[in-house]
Design a protein that fits this description.
By secondary structure, this protein is an all-alpha fold. It is about 50% helix and about 5% strand. The chain binds zinc ion (ZN). Zinc ion (ZN) binds next to helix 7.
Length: about 450
C-alpha cells in the first residue's frame, strides 16, 4: 500500500482543482493514476469508479463526508439546486452513486475562471493558488473583491493545473461585458440567489415552488401558460432588463429569441411542475419576480414552512413569535442558521427571519468553532475578540461591500449569541486549515458555465 500526502482542501476549493493539487503534491501526472493511488492508499484497490466514486475518494482525502465535500467543494448544490429529480436527496449523498459518479465532479471541458489579483493574494497567503468555487458561478464574470473582469481558460480539463500555472494561456472577459452587469440590480439578485443555493444541503423541489412562481408571475401580469392569450412573456421581460452580453453567458437562448416568441425553458417555469429547464432559468425568473434576493429567499423558505426538506406530515404551524430570550437561545443553538432556528421553534422561516433580523441577528453561513477565517470568524473576532474592523474584513474573506452589508445587519444581541455559541471546553479542535483568508467574495460560490459561454468567449 502506498502512502499519499493528504493536503487539506482550501476554503471553497473546487473538487477537481483539489484533485490537481493532490496530483502535484504526490507527483502524479494523470488524474487516473492519482485516483488509483488514492484507492490503494485507502486499501480499496480493484473497485470500479462507479462502485467507489472519485467523489468519495476525494472526500476521504479531505477527511470529510461525501455530503460535506459536495456541499463545500463542488458545484452540485447549485447545479441541482432546483430540481424535480429526487429533490429530497441531500447533495453528495451516497444513496445515488450514479448521481455522484456523473455529476459530482465538475465535468471536463468547462471554462475555468480565476482572478489574477486573487491568485497573487492566494500565493502570498496560502503558498499556492487554487480554483475558487465562487468565481465559477455562472454570471459571476468579474471578481467581486477586486471588481475586475475574470480570466478564464478553456482547455479539456482546466482545473487540474493551478490558476498560477494557467495565467499565460488565459484570456480575460471583456470589460464591456462586465461594466453594464456589475451595477445591474437583476444581475446582483441572480448572483445572490445562486450563492444562497450553496447554503442549502438539498435542492428546492420544483413541484413545491411552481405554485409560488405561477401566483407571483400571474400577479405581475406574466403569462402563466403557453396557450394563454393574456399577459406578457417573462422571457421578453428578461431580455429587456438583463444586459445582453451578460445574459448570453448564462442563457443565450433568451437573447437569441425574438420578441413575443414563447421560450419553453424559461416561460414554462411559471407553470410546469417538472423541471422545465436548468437551475439558471429558475434563478433568472426569481430575479425578475422578486424585488430582492432576500424577498425571493424568504418566499421560497415560506413554501417550505421552515424545513430544509419538505416534511410529509407537518404539524399545524404556530404563528406567534417567541420572546427575545428564546429567539437568541435558538439562534445560538442553531449556530446562526435562520432555517434551523425556524425548525427548532417550529415556526415558518420568514417569521423567524424577520424577528431575528430586527434583533440584529443575521443568518450565518456554515462554520465551526475551529474556523479561523470566514465571515463568522470575522464577526467573532470583531465582537468577542475586539479586533479592528480592518483585520476583521481580512479574516472574513469577503469584499468590503459584502462585509459592510453583513455588519449592517448585526446588532448588540449578536455578541451575546456568538458568546453562547462558543464552546467553553478547553479541548477546542484546532483548525487544520492554513491560516489565511477565505475566497474573495461570497460565503458560497461554483461553476456551471454552459458550453455556449465557451463558444461565445472563444468567438470574442
Ligand atoms: Zn480577485
Amino acid at each position: 500500500m502506498n502512502m499519499l500526502v493528504q493536503p487539506a482542501p482550501f476554503p471553497e476549493e473546487m473538487d477537481r482543482g483539489y484533485l490537481g493539487r493532490i496530483m502535484r503534491v504526490n507527483g502524479y501526472r494523470t488524474p487516473k493514476d492519482a485516483v488509483e493511488a488514492m484507492a490503494a492508499h485507502f486499501g480499496e484497490e480493484g473497485r470500479s469508479r462507479r462502485d467507489l466514486t472519485t467523489h468519495e475518494l476525494l472526500s476521504r482525502m479531505a477527511g470529510m463526508t461525501t455530503e460535506h465535500f459536495a456541499q463545500r467543494h463542488t458545484t452540485l448544490p447549485l447545479r441541482r439546486g432546483i430540481t424535480s429529480y429526487v429533490p429530497s436527496l441531500i447533495h453528495g449523498s451516497k444513496e445515488r452513486k450514479s448521481l455522484l459518479h456523473n455529476s459530482a465532479s465538475l465535468r471536463k471541458g468547462q471554462p475555468a475562471f480565476f482572478c489574477k489579483e486573487c491568485v497573487k493574494a492566494d500565493v502570498h497567503f496560502h503558498g499556492a493558488s487554487y480554483w475558487r468555487r465562487d468565481l465559477q458561478t455562472p454570471g459571476q464574470i468579474w471578481c467581486p473583491k477586486h471588481e475586475t473582469p475574470l480570466y478564464f481558460i478553456t482547455s479539456d480539463d482546466p482545473f487540474l493545473a493551478s490558476p498560477a500555472m494557467s495565467i499565460d494561456e488565459a484570456a480575460q472577459i471583456p470589460q464591456e461585458w462586465v461594466k453594464p452587469a456589475i451595477k445591474n440590480a437583476y444581475v446582483a439578485r441572480f448572483i445572490e440567489l445562486a450563492a444562497s443555493l450553496y447554503d442549502r444541503p438539498s435542492p428546492l423541489d420544483v413541484a413545491l415552488i411552481a405554485p409560488l412562481l405561477r401566483d407571483t408571475g400571474s400577479a405581475q401580469g406574466f403569462k402563466v401558460n403557453a396557450s394563454s392569450k393574456q399577459g406578457a412573456l417573462i422571457s421578453d421581460h428578461m431580455k429587456a432588463v438583463f444586459p445582453p452580453q451578460w445574459l448570453s453567458t448564462v442563457f443565450h437562448e433568451v437573447v437569441e429569441k425574438s420578441q413575443g416568441e414563447y421560450l419553453h425553458q424559461v416561460d414554462g417555469t411559471l407553470y410546469l411542475r417538472k423541471s422545465a429547464s436548468s437551475v439558471i432559468a429558475y434563478l433568472l425568473v426569481l430575479s425578475v419576480l422578486f424585488e430582492s434576493a432576500d424577498t425571493a429567499i424568504n418566499a421560497l423558505a415560506g413554501v417550505y414552512g421552515g424545513g430544509v426538506v419538505p416534511a410529509p406530515h407537518r404539524k399545524p404551524i404556530k404563528r406567534s413569535v417567541p420572546a427575545i430570550d428564546e429567539l437568541v437561545e435558538g439562534y445560538a443553538i442553531a449556530k446562526g442558521v435562520h432555517a434551523e432556528v425556524a425548525r427548532l421553534l417550529d415556526l415558518p422561516v420568514y417569521v423567524v427571519r424577520k424577528s431575528l433580523l430586527e434583533l440584529g441577528l443575521p443568518s450565518l453561513p456554515e462554520w465551526t468553532p475551529a474556523s479561523e477565517v470566514g465571515p463568522v470568524a470575522a464577526l467573532r473576532a470583531f465582537y468577542l475578540g475586539k479586533r479592528s474592523y480592518a483585520s476583521c474584513l481580512e479574516i472574513s474573506g469577503l469584499s468590503p461591500g459584502r462585509f459592510d452589508a453583513l455588519m449592517r445587519q448585526c446588532g448588540p444581541a449578536l455578541a451575546l449569541a456568538l458568546d453562547r455559541m462558543s464552546p467553553k471546553t478547553k479541548d477546542r479542535p484546532r483548525a487544520r486549515r492554513v491560516k489565511g483568508r477565505l475566497p474573495s467574495n461570497q460565503e458560497q460560490g461554483a461553476v456551471l458555465a454552459t458550453p455556449q459561454l465557451r463558444e461565445m468567449l472563444l468567438q470574442n
